[in-house]
Amino acid sequence: MEEPDKDSRPGTRMRILLRQLCPAPGPAALTTIPTSAQVAAVNPTRFRYTLDNNLLTPDQRQFYDENGYVVIKNLVSDEDIERFRDEFMKICKKEVEVPPGLIIMRDVAIAKSEFVPDQKAVTKLQDFQEVGELFRYCTLPQILKYVECFTGPNIMAMHTMLINKPPDSGKKSSRHPMHQDLHYFPFRPADCIVCAWTAMERIDRSNGCLVVLPGTHKSSLKQHDYPNWEGGVNKMYHGVRDYNENLPRVHLVMERGDTVFFHPLLIHGSGMNRTQGFRKAISCHYASADCHYIDVKGTSQENIENEVIEIARRKYGVEAAISLKDVWKLRARLVEGERTNL
Questions:
Q1: Which family does it belong to (predicted)?
Q2: Of 3.40.50.1220, 3.40.50.10090, 2.40.50.200, 2.60.120.620, which CATH number belongs to 65-336?
């Protein structure tokens, strides 16, 4: 009689299942994640926030698990960055037709001043999914191969921004309050969402680099509102109402082309731009196409839903009842794999 495969015995299968559901206590050692051609280690490292596709190293995966972000140096070429910069300037100067979905945001401190058709008053281009040259950023192969480490192979580009932090007017309005990006998103699960944020020039504390609170991605979504800032707050710049301000902060100094990938629950913001130049970055939030939409009514996100719907009604003249998820369905674009759900 043929000996049954030892891994098929009920007791062995149960032990394997229990190990998967109840990992051993204590920090796991960093080991190489086995492929189908390798023999599994006795206690392989278990990472919650990344997937195994042999791109991120075990050290990078461990860092993301603990901190909620990881920086990849020199990921986007100078040539691509110049093309994005040129397209941004053309939009500011009205040299190209602006698609209806694009939102051009202006700094609250200078938006009502005499308009000059250049980048002076423009702080952000949001929802550039219909601007082909800018949306090309979201489809760059070197970006997507890292995104797949967080979302899997079916990838949706959900939220696009080119940020142009202007020299501060003296009212500190160039700051961005500490916030969690998930506050704006009516789709879940959070662990299948990631932001790619690329510096378009050297970014440091002088021109308002990103500030992150490492490890806060492990907490829940917090209440967000407009901060009570004397110099005013830009539209939709909501901030976390209550968090531990004594938590360690990291200022992400980045060179042109460096890209940070971070979790949507990571608390982050940026400081003032104290230079005379404009600090530019381009970003996209991606989600697994297997994610699902949620209803945010009655939750802490209801205030942002009301604000987004108000803007959508004014911009598109919509009179029918719409929800936050309806707006996001319009923004979403498949960039890799299959559109399975979102």
A1: Belongs to the PhyH family.
A2: 2.60.120.620
